[in-house]
Fold this sequence. Notes:
- The protein is α/β, with parallel strands linked by helices.
- The protein has helices at residues 6-21, 36-53, 67-80, 92-105, 120-128, 140-154, 178-188; strands at 2-4, 26-31, 56-62, 86-89, 112-114, 133-137, 165-167, 169-173.
- The chain is globular and about 60 Å long.
Amino acid sequence: WFNFDSPSGAKAICEFMIAELGNDKSYALIRGIPGSIDNLRSQTFADCVEENGNWTKVAEQYADFNREKGYSSMEQIMTAFPEVEVIHNANTAMGIGAVEAQIASGKTDEFFTTAWGGTSLELDAIREGTLDATPMRMSDDVGAAAAEAIKAVLEGRVDELPLVFLGRMAIAHKGLSAAEIDALENDAFRYSGLAPVK
């Protein structure tokens, strides 16, 4: 089984944000589609910040992992819940949509905003200062692990193989230098290349 561990990413971004922002924050979730992936990313994060940072969830909306719906969800949150300080998005598309809504309203400095996954689009937004942080998959780890597993089988080393391969995750954020973000990006996409996700 080859994948990335969404709960570990959610816990990592939770721990980073509590360390960065402190306790007693108000936050909103822009969630994907009801189900396991969103629960692992959104609910794990929510449980963590509430238990460990005494954060208060004041809003949550499902936006179908969609950029336009992320935009409209952010617009609604800004209008209906002006007390929100932190926006946690469950994927790249919704995170970029939320950032675009903040830019259109001139409010990018009013929120700490995350996305999810660490795609090139997210890293560009971090470089531009419009996105604050993301749990970043070292994306090519899974492909490299699959290739190494095939090689091990061909070489008769099946007994060396684990049943589960989980790619690494790192937190990319605005506090990193340009060189540090570039290094993370180069590592994550070391085989597949750096073409942005469209």
